[in-house]
User: Fold this.
Amino acid sequence: MSESTAVAAPEAPSVRPFPLPGYSISVGPFSHLRAERERLAALRWQHFDAQQVGATLGAEISGIDLTVTQPGEVIEELRQALHDYKVLFFRDQPLTSAQHVGFAQRFGDLEIHPALAASAEQPELVRFEKGSEMVGVENAWHHDVTWRERPSLGAILHAVEVPPIGGDTLFADMYAAYDSLDEDTRAEIDTLDAVHDFTRAFGFRASPEQQAAMRQQNPSVRHPVVATHAATGRRHLYVNRIFTDRIVGYDEERSRALIDRLARQADYPEHQVRLKWRPDTVAFWDNRAVQHYAASDYWPQRRIVERASITGPRPTR
Assistant:
């Protein structure tokens, strides 16, 4: 059994970053990370080993073979590790498409994406095949599919082919991002909702008529700006520039400014961990607790990855 338990976010200590005069960034000790960093460092696991690789998120898991069907107790311990570390990395896992889907299905029902290209072998797998003709455009911080009424609770990404340099994926801790905010900002956003819209990413070049048809198939949804994680009970930011269209009750200028300000909390390296891919690396992230960013610095080299996404519950306050 894991020694970990679901805990509330620790109270912010008195020593905190402070605004750099004249700018909208803060400098100084990110002391709100201490309790979580130390908690993760103390975790031990029964069925695998975990090497913590970021201050409050990220662990490299070893001693487990994902190409083999794992017993239920191993799956449950991995589920707990995901809740604790927010993103798990596995090396040297030569998954077939069927094995990839089979592993992901142990954590819940899988999504079928309405717009992205699927693997030829498994419709549950989205295939990102980028190179000289199809460029990578995932280099903005985001949670996946927040335009769904029930966005994914997690995603499992398998590296099929990676460039020798570049194409890393970065992950940012949205619990820590929320904890980093001042009390006045948290008081403002704790009761706000935001509208998330499919057409912001998948229909921005479409005509108004085409966008209307897209929304009929994938209607806009409202989610809390600050959501409570269904498994851990911790609060996290839940807005992003790609899919979040507006803050309910705010005019366009005020709405855009607040979304941008909150999204900037992912920019701090103190909130991040970075994965350098190798072939057959697997990343499994909690799509609520983290946002991610795929660096687009490898063009025209090839980068091929496949993703299985697990359907989650509707976000709640």
Q: What stands out?
A: The longest helix spans residues 72-85. The chain has one domain: 34-311. Confidence is low (pLDDT under 50) at residues 1-13. The helical segments are 34-41, 72-85, 97-105, 174-179, 183-189, 199-202, 208-217, 252-263.
